[in-house]
Amino acid sequence: MFPAPSPFAFQPDEKVEQGFVRVLGQLEIQVRATADFHGPLSDSVHATRVLIKRLRALLWFARTVFPPTKWKRARARLRRAAHLLAAQRDLMVVRSILKKVAQKTSNSACRKTLARISRAPDDRQAVRQANEQSLREAVAILVATLQQMKRTAQLISRWPSPSHRLNRAFSVAKKSAKKALRGDDPAQFHDWRKKAKRLLYQLQLTQGRPGGAMRRLIKRVDRLQQNLGDYHDSVVAEERLRKSPPDEVPPPVVQHGVMLLEKRRQRLRKEARKIARQIA
Question: Is 121 exposed, middle or buried (0-12, 13-18, 19+ CB in 10 A)?
Answer without folding.
Answer: exposed
